[in-house]
Structures are given as C-alpha cells and as structure tokens.
Protein: RNA polymerase factor sigma-54
Amino acid sequence: MKFEQRIKQTQQQTQKLAMTQELQQSIQMLQYNTEDLLSFLENKSLENPLLEVKIETDEMILPKKTSTSNHSDDQKTEWMEQVPDESISLFEYLINQVHLNYRETYLRKLVLYLIEFIDLNGYLTTPLEEIREKTEATEIQMLDALTLLQMLEPTGVGARSLKECLMLQIEKDDSAPNLAYIIVEEYFEELANRKWSIIQKAYDIEVFEVQDIFDYIQKLQPYPGANFSREEESYIIPDVVVKVKDDLIEVLSTKSSTPKLIFQQAYFERMSRESDKEVQEFLKIRKSEFEWLQKGVLQRGNTILRVAEEIVKHQSQFFLDPKRPLGPLQLKEVAKALSIHESTVSRSVNGKYLQTDFGMFELRSFFTTGISQGQSGEDVSTDSIKKEILDIINEEDKSKPLSDQKIVDLLLAKEIKISRRAVAKYRDELEIPASSKRKRYDRK
Structure:
C-alpha cells in the first residue's frame, strides 16, 4: 500500500482576547484597594517624568483605624489595670521587672534565661527539664526560678498550660470565689465540659455556686501576653460614601479612590525640542503610558461607583432600616444589571470599602446567599436568618435554653422555612454553643 502525505493550506477565522500589557494593568488597578493603587501610581511616577500624582482627600472622610489583634479591646477585666505601655514588648517588660525586683543572684540569672523561652502569649512552651539540661541548675533551683518568673506581671505569665495560667490568676485575686482554685486544679476538665453534677457532689455545694465559678473563670485572661503581641495598626480608606437624607440614598466617590494624574506639559514641551530620536521615542512612550494610566484610573473609579450604586439599590433597606437587614444578593445579579462580567464585579468589591454615618463596610459584605421559601414566598438572606436566630437565643430562658428544633418552629412562625441542620450550621457560625452548653444555673 502506497502512503501519500498531502499538505493543504486552509484559512480559519477565530476570535480571542489579546491580553496586552495595558489591559493587564487596567485589570490589576481595578483589583487594587485604594492604598495599593496609590502605591502603584507613585512607583509609576518615579519611572515616568511626565507623570505627577496628586492625592486629594475628602474633608469629611476620616480613615478608619483598624487593628489586627484577635482580642477585643472591650474586655473590662481587672488585669487590664495592670497592662503596661504597649510600645515595649513582653520580653522587654519581663526583663525590666526582673532587674527592678530581684537582686543579682544565680536564681535571677535562671529567671532571665527562662524568659527567653516565653512565647508571645506569655506561656513557657519548652519543657522545664529540657531547659534545665542546658544549664547546670538543679531541679529545685529551676522550680524556684519558675516560681519567681510566675510572680511577675502580667498575671499568669510563665504558665505551662491554660489550667496553670488560670490558677496563677485565681491565686493572686483576693476576690476570687471560694473553691475556684481547687476546682480548677482538681476538676478542670469537668468544669470546662459542664459536668457540674460531679463537682457539686464532690464539694457538697449548690449547682449555682459552680455556675458562679464558671462565670468568674470566663473573665480571666487565657493569653497573658496578648496585649504585647498586637500588630501595627492600619487605616482603611473608603472608596465610596453613602449619604442618607429623608429616605433618599446618595452614593458618592471619594477623591482618594480616584487620584488626580497631572501631565508635566512644560517638561514635555522642553524635551520635545531635542533632536535626538531616542529622546523623542522616550517621550512618545511615556506620554502614551500617562494617557492609558489616566484612562485606567478614571475607569476604575467609575466601575467601583457603578457597582456600589447597584449594591445600594438592591440593599436599600440596610441603609434605611435601623436593624440593617440584608437581602440575598449575588455577584451575577449586579453583573447582569451593569452588563459586565462577574469577575469585574468581584474585583470591584474585594478590598473596597463603603463609608456611612453608622460605620464602614467592605462592599463584598453586601453579597449574601438566600434560602428559598418555596413558590409562595421570596428568598430570605442567610444574614437575616442569622439575626433572627441570634435574637431568639438572646431572648430565651437561660435555665431552659431552646433546642435547634424549637428554633426551627419559632422561625416557621415568622414564615421562615429552614431545616434543623441549617439552624445548627448558622448557630456554629455565630459561635453560639448548643442548648446543653447554654444552660445556666443562677441563684433563685
């Protein structure tokens, strides 16, 4: 059989998007938050002598200070009164106390050595025996050094476990409930797991006394070094502002979200007189760069504003109703209304913030899923359902907390259809324990 190879030329027409550098950077600019955008433009101005970035701020807009700390500043407990200046580290604070309070002895050297093994939470995480092997100290000397370390502030520092941390704080607190120290020492697991009948029988006390001790323990600080481990505070610059007056909602761009780019005309005209071809080519490239940067910045600001307006249109009740209800809203709904791609909406809301008279909110937070209520009713947002669950639990009788099924029944009475499994899921997301964990035994 003779094999014959034939080569044929054909024409085929296809469409595809060419991702030019300008298009890529335009997409990148849309994805930037305001701070990153300003940094990007400042770097461009260093490369391009024809470009000057003028950053304007709105007189009525103040940046919102945020902290990356995982611990609330609202906790008003006694240990807060002993918190030192946060400008120094936990390590420095402990070292200063040792030099101030303890004489120069071998034990003081051991205390200073132990401090090197304290983590940011204030715990001694390395086993004492392992630390002792690195020194010539005896076991008794090491234990004495640990005792001296645990006498320092903040109370609880140098603990080797949560249990020991709580015991150190109870020991120093004259107002601690009777039996609190010994119950934590001997029945810590039972107390934490609410097996209070065991404790009640062991000490022949009333169950409400165990409840009082449990409430007291909740107020103690599980992380003694927490106030020293805060990261640097940052500021959020809003991209849009919402103003409400007489039930009318107005959405405005901030000056910070659309920086003003100034073309250096005098420099351009002066350099244009040069006959050098390389200079002329350089000017041409830089002028073109300025033009597309200016276009990109304006387009970015316009896109964010349009998306924000559409969000506010869908979530108008959030701005008008003091309860701040959110309706179900998806990216594709906004994308369809504005005739843009979902990815464009996503880039426009991630890291972009909306400021109101009652707070600042990330645009992405206005997108919530909904639960179908069947043919007879509209979808209800998960955010609204969570608020209803929270209200129901806050109003329940704490001596007889509601089961998940009972919450389902109460929601159904409000014409909200939801499964017991969904209630359990949303309750977990709200960090609300099950009914058995919510039961209280207060004094009658």
User: Anything to note?
Assistant: Residues 65-86 have pLDDT under 50 and may be disordered. The chain has three domains: 90-228, 240-362, 382-437. The CA atoms of residues 253 and 319 lie 17 Å apart. Strands lie at 51-54, 64-66, 234-236, 240-245, 248-253, 260-263, 353-356, 359-362, 370-371, 380-381.
